[in-house]
Write a structure and sequence with these properties.
Elements lengths: L4 H20 L17 H4 E5 L4 E3 L5 E6 L5 E5 L5 E9 L8 E8 L8 E9 L8 E10 L10 E4 L9 E7 L3 E6 L2 E7 L12 E8 L19 E13 L21 H14 E4 L15
Antiparallel strand pairs: 1-4, 2-3, 3-14, 4-13, 5-10, 5-14, 6-7, 6-13, 7-8, 8-9, 9-15, 10-11, 11-12
Amino acid sequence: MAAGPAMAMLVVVAAAAMAASSSSAQPSPGYYPSSAHRPMAFSRGYTNKWGPQHQTLSADQSSLTIWLDKTCGSGFKSRKAYRNGYFAARVKLPAGYTAGTNTAFYLSNNEAHPGFHDEVDMEFLGTIPGEPYTLQTNVYVRGSGDGHIIGREMRFHLWFDPTADFHHYAILWNPNAITFFVDDVPIRRYERKSELTFPDRPMWVYGSIWDASDWATDDGRHRADYRYQPFVARFDRFVVAGCAPTAPPSCRPVPASPAGAGLTPRQYAAMRWAQQTHMVYYYCQDYRRDHSLTPEC
């Protein structure tokens, strides 16, 4: 029996729904660096940086809880600096009204080079109920905090609720590229185009939660509201796999894929999915900016 117009329309709608469902599902990257490295006890790789009264370490030292209230936030720092490496942790973000808060996992050498530092960021920008968290990735190269810093931001709305459970976040910093991973999906790859646009000085690994009300949520329109304190973030499954500055040449960078250099076609496909469906800002596409300062664009 031939299908009528109504049946044909149902087929079209069903096909569209299936396509939408498929496009929203996280693809398999085919390679899982998070499973290639064993987690370490927090105290083996890290130490408190600030706000020790706002940190709680589990008895087995596998997980750390940090929180922000109206008195202060809290942060931790790796015991050693690294010249490259794979740095990862699982994170569960504060829920509810979190506007103005910034939960961060990042690399920096600001203490070694104040006013002229490098930084590689994964920052979770708090939000108001009903609106998604924003994951901001960023790369600073010989920047400073005096107004002359040049950000290279790429922002995403995550495809899951990052407050409902732990998810795996990682930065892979190699001599040829910096790759950001969310649950092993490479969401961004910042390649070395020149010495002037790529960080190559040793950096430490940091994690923190702090009040970034001036800019974190809708450019500061929504600020931290301490009626909802404390804002609690949880970290576990800490991985540090890298070469310290004094490591011998035999200490090789962690590969981004089974091939070693670059990503596999399947990883690139997963990254295209993340950027096409969940990226909400990319500095190279912001034509309000002076791109003479970011020649890699």
